[in-house]
Design goal:
Length: about 240
């Protein structure tokens, strides 16, 4: 039976953000199949970004998994993928999802949206994005560096920022529904200790919102841990595979 790690990126990101971690996984355990998906609206998965909702992202990830022909997966959700992965788990069922790993994820209370759950500067910035009638665009560089890249090397920061893209506001404003997510699937949380986008305090609230988290692994780094500490992240993923 084939078994793969499926990496689902967050808002304003693409599958490319996982490249350092994919390389680290290959070095650590070359036999593990790794699938880094592109959610709708990226170059690898074209769509009108303004119309992409949570259900579209769920369907896209499920289709990528089916097209890869794998029987069982460990789902890894970074940041905004926290609203997509529970739906993927519901669609595939407990028999095909060995574990869900949430990495600095956005997990609002069931029935609420990401925007309703955000606090501080990020809530203000996302609210402005939602209200803005202009063509969708990623955060300005200075803000993106502040939110995603604190503590990174210059090379890591450049890699992070150069890969950002426009994002659908629907992912931030649609209420989540985790009622169909199988409760028997093991859940792990990777908590990013220096995170400015989803602070450690917020992440602990999100752990409570999700429920059923077996273990919390803290990595003392920024929001984009898959770029800042790929070897550490890869080791955690392999250990939970």
């Amino acid at each position: 039976m084939s078994h793969a790690i499926v990496l689902v990126h967050g808002g304003q990101h693409t599958s490319e953000c996982w490249e350092p971690t994919v390389s680290a996984l290959a070095a650590l355990h070359p036999d593990i199949e790794v699938i880094a998906v592109d959610l709708p609206g990226r170059a690898g998965n074209p769509a009108d970004i303004r119309t992409v909702g949570i259900a579209d992202c769920v369907a896209s990830v499920v289709a990528d998994i089916e097209n890869a022909g794998v029987d069982e997966v460990m789902l890894v959700a970074h940041s905004m993928a926290g609203v997509t992965v529970p739906g993927v788990a519901a669609a595939l069922g407990a028999d095909r999802v060995s574990r869900m790993v949430f990495v600095a994820a956005a997990v609002p209370p069931d029935g609420k949206s990401i925007l309703q759950d955000l606090v501080g500067d990020l809530q203000e910035e996302v609210s402005d994005k939602v209200d803005d009638q202009a063509e969708p665009a990623p955060f300005p560089r200075e803000l993106a560096e502040q939110l995603f890249c604190n503590g990174m090397t210059g090379e890591q920061t450049e890699f992070s920022i150069s890969g950002l893209c426009a994002e659908s506001t629907l992912l931030a404003t649609q209420p989540v529904d985790r009622s169909a997510m199988p409760t028997s699937i093991p859940r792990t949380w990777i908590l990013t200790g220096q995170d400015r986008a989803v602070t450690p305090e917020q992440q602990r609230a999100h752990i409570d919102n999700l429920g059923g988290v077996e273990d919390v692994v803290e990595i003392d780094t920024c929001h984009n841990v898959m770029i800042s500490e790929p070897e550490i992240l890869a080791k955690v993923l392999v250990d939970h595979f």
